[in-house]
Amino acid sequence: xxxxxxxxxxxxxxxxxxxxxxxxxxxxxxxxxxxxxxxxxxxxxxxxxxxxxxxxxxxxxxxxxxxxxxxxxxxxxxxxxxxxxxxxxxxxxxxxxxxxxxxxxxxxxxxxxxxxxxxxxxxxxxxxxxxxxxxxxxxxxxxxxxxxxxxxxxxxxxxxxxxxxxxxxxxxxxxxxxxxxxxxxxxxxxxxxxxxxxxxxxxxxxxxxxxxxxxxxxxxxxxxxxxxxxxxxxxxxxxxxxxxxxxxxxxx
Length: 252
Prior knowledge:
Helix content: over 70%
Order of helices and strands: HHHHHHHHHHH
Largest sheet: none
Shape: globular
Number of helices: 11
Distance between the termini: 29 Å
Number of strands: 0
């Protein structure tokens, strides 16, 4: 690995860790960087999932005191997300590389759209369901979210927050805490499969984790200083640009 590639991975990891701490959307920086480092789309996707796992786990640990009570319904939601992650990871393993490559622009575009319109999605889903508790629907939607998370993962937190906001009566901080732990459950389940299948590019991934750790740490300090709207705008622009780049590369 040359020096410029190392700087790319550390820089993208730093930007991703910072983004995760401030607004989310880390994969819109980290996944394209792994592609730029020369990894195939499938390996880059699996490696990206592993690279962001420590940052996501840290977020889940920090908010653990806000988790909802461990009722049978809550456990069902958690295990549905984890089961979805297993299925999504298995689907990625069995997707031929040439087909996944064609999906890359659409997946990045979808993640960008979810990041931009996440709050509108949550409001629309809430109006459709009329509020209140919908435990079985919540578990089912978390299962589907977990499949997406295991398969690609970018924007998973946005999707889970929309689901939880529309199908539970929990307050927002509790939704966020459960979203974090459900996100980790889906990704850990998928990563067990990725590791056992030899799909993690360890050298590139561990270098990127260094960047995400520093970015995440500094993000915790900068959250009170940097304007949230400016951070979100930067992430959205990055997602749109990356979508355009990969449409040109893989579709045109």
